[in-house]
């Protein structure tokens, strides 16, 4: 009988802890996320959707921009998982590399723009809290996290594009 009492208390305790965590998010990060998202959509409206589309089409022509600017804008503007739809501006042979770049950026983006991928926010907050407890600046961490993310997506995009070209040639030669 004692174990039933223990289970009941701890079972409800788990939901109490979850409720406290939820209220912390509701009064902490959620208002910030809503304001950031509203700001991003307002900027898009001011700039105009056509201009944004033209900028993305321009960026898709150059490898450096294709695997830096395109994934950054796609994740900031459309957020995860809609960000991958920017691949529509690319030929089929470049879509795998763009996807690799975009999917690799949805985590580092949370450091400066948490609304872009709220699902990954818990990872960044965990790291940031550890850095804060160690006495380091969370702002420096956020900027470094973002910059390293850009370097990583560029490298992944280039490597994935090279692999895709290699495999396409290999498949082409086998079909002949």
List keywords for this structure.
176 residues; 8 helices
Description:
The chain has 8 helices and no strands. The chain has helices at 2-27, 29-47, 49-59, 63-66, 69-78, 95-105, 121-133, 138-175. The longest helix has 38 residues, at 138-175. The mean pLDDT is 84.
Question: Quick gist of this model?
Answer:
It contains 8 helices and no strands.
Which helices and strands occur, and which strands form pairs?
Blueprint: H1 2-27, H2 29-47, H3 49-59, H4 63-66, H5 69-78, H6 95-105, H7 121-133, H8 138-175
Helix pairs in contact: 5-6, 6-8
Output the number of helix runs.
8
Identify the quaternary structure here.
single chain
Q: Give the rounded overall mean pLDDT.
A: 84
Helix content: over 70%
């Amino acid at each position: 009988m004692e174990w039933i009492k223990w289970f009941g208390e701890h079972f409800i305790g788990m939901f109490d802890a979850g409720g406290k965590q939820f209220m912390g998010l509701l009064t902490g990060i959620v208002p910030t996320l809503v304001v950031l998202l509203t700001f991003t959509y307002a900027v898009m409206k001011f700039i105009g959707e056509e201009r944004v589309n033209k900028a993305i089409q321009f960026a898709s022509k150059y490898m450096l921009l294709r695997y830096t600017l395109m994934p950054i804008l796609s994740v900031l503007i459309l957020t995860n998982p809609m960000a991958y739809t920017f691949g529509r501006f690319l030929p089929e042979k470049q879509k795998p590399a763009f996807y690799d770049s975009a999917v690799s950026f949805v985590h580092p983006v949370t450091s400066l723009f948490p609304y872009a991928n709220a699902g990954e926010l818990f990872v960044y907050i965990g790291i940031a809290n550890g850095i804060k407890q160690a006495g380091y600046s969370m702002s420096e961490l956020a900027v470094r996290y973002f910059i390293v993310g850009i370097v990583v997506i560029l490298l992944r995009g280039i490597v994935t594009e090279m692999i895709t070209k290699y495999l396409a040639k290999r498949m082409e030669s086998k079909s002949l």
